[in-house]
Design a protein that fits this description.
Elements (H helix, E strand, L loop, with lengths): L4 E3 L2 E5 L6 E4 L22 E3 L2 H10 L4 E6 L4 H16 L5 E6 L4 H6 L7 E6 L2 E7 L4 H12 L2
Parallel strand pairs: 4-6, 5-6
Antiparallel strand pairs: 1-2, 2-3, 5-7, 7-8
Helix pairs in contact: 2-4
The structure holds zinc ion (ZN).
The site of zinc ion (ZN) has 8 residues, from loops.
Length: 152
């Protein structure tokens, strides 16, 4: 599904020029391929986080504000918001990182952030939550919410 993955040490992406797998540190604003030295594209799609450790390191170290979508597979409105969020991530590549947290897979995060309904979207900067909203919305409304939080 997603070309970009995450582990506890960074974003893992395949170099579009040579196919080499690279890990980009969360705090890096620009990264080059370790093999061919091409500039690697910024994250342009929502990235799924699979455990608390990955989430904590990413939001703490990220070079950009992080938009987190708390969702679950059985949630209809979450499925409606998914393509809107994907479009939003693509149009904000290099400015924001968009992360998805499946609250069934990582219930610890849902509990810690007291997620009462999904989808809930939250914006983190410097490891701290600075805004949140709930409910499905179109990409333009996601954009307005996030810009209001981080300053457009
Ligand atoms: Zn390369």
């Amino acid at each position: 599904m997603s070309a970009m993955r995450v582990d506890e040490r960074g974003l893992i992406t395949v170099c579009p020029s040579c196919g080499q797998k690279n890990r980009i540190a969360f705090n890096a604003k620009e990264a080059r391929c370790g093999k061919c030295k091409a500039v690697l594209p910024a994250a342009a799609e929502p990235i799924e986080v699979h455990n608390e450790r990955e989430f904590d390191v990413l939001v703490r170290d990220a070079a950009y504000p992080v938009v987190v979508d708390f969702w679950a597979p059985w949630c209809g409105p979450c499925r409606m918001v998914a393509p809107e969020l994907a479009w939003f991530a693509a149009s904000n590549a290099g400015r924001l990182i968009v992360v998805k947290v499946n609250t069934d897979e990582v219930p610890e995060l849902g509990e810690r952030f007291r997620i009462r309904s999904i989808p809930t979207m939250a914006v983190f900067r410097g490891g701290k939550e600075i805004a949140r909203t709930t409910g499905a919305m179109p990409a333009a409304q996601i954009e307005a919410f996030v810009n209001g939080a981080v300053g457009a």
